[in-house]
Amino acid sequence: ASLRVANPGCYATAVTLAIAPLAAAALIETTDLVVVAASGTTGAGRTPTDSLLASEVMGSMSAYKVGGVHQHIPEIEQSIAQVSGQRTSLSFTTLLAPMPRGIISTSTAAVRPGTTRKDLIDCLAEAYAGERFVRLLAPGNWPRTSSVSGTNTALLQIEFDEHSGRAVVVSAIDNLGKGAAGQAIQNANLMLGLEESMGLPTDGGAT
């Protein structure tokens, strides 16, 4: 087991889980990745600021760190480049959502010629078959942040936008769970030779 493990950022977790299998299978163009993702207020840390007051956040959404300046962009591009062996370019826009916790991310990428809807679905299904903490939902069901709140689970759904020729993957995680403490415990379990899921909730939810 590794003696040192770096846990990815919360956004990087949600996006990489969605895109990496498709990139590794050469089903998408890694130079044309577009992601729009929304996070709850805890994603901004614990420092009290006026912009994070409930009176400012609730009933409203806003974008932040727009224009290629978000700190998770290099991390995501590096991960996708490593699994694909290809140059990677990401357009990443983040939104502050009126909720305490959770991330919902919509990742899109141009598909390579000949790629079908079945190819995309089968790719994610095979990549996460048997994975305790990553689940591809049944067709027609879409991830919700409330479904993963308080858990170490990531929920995914994929569709093929034939009009634009793009794969669309929606992922949901708890930024404080799978996006932070949950995966830290998961990695510690693996490093110590313990059951991967020890001490980690997979179902249910907390508010």
Helical region count? 6
CATH top-level class: Alpha Beta
The structure class reads alpha/beta
Rounded to the nearest angstrom, the distance between the terminal CA atoms is 35 Å
* Shape verdict: globular
Beta-strand content: 15-25%
Helix content: 25-40%
Mean pLDDT: 92
| Number of separate structural domains | 1
Q: Radius of gyration, rounded? A: 17 Å
CATH homologous superfamily label = Dihydrodipicolinate Reductase, domain 2
Per CATH, what is the topology? Answer: Dihydrodipicolinate Reductase, domain 2
CATH architecture: 2-Layer Sandwich
> Could you give the order of strands across the largest sheet?
2-3-1-4-7-6-5
Structure in words:
With about 210 residues, this protein is α/β, with parallel strands linked by helices. It is about 30% helix and about 25% strand. The longest helix has 15 residues, at about 10-25. A hairpin with a 4-residue loop joins β6 and β7. A seven-stranded mixed beta sheet has the order 2-3-1-4-7-6-5. α1 (about 10-25) runs parallel beside α3. It has one domain (about 10-190): Dihydrodipicolinate Reductase, domain 2.
Itemize the secondary structure elements and their pairings:
Layout: H1 10-24, E1 28-39, H2 54-57, E2 62-64, H3 73-84, E3 90-96, E4 103-111, H4 117-127, E5 134-136, H5 145-148, E6 154-161, E7 166-173, H6 177-191
Parallel strand pairs: 1-3, 5-6
Antiparallel strand pairs: 1-4, 2-3, 4-7, 6-7
Helix pairs in contact: 1-3
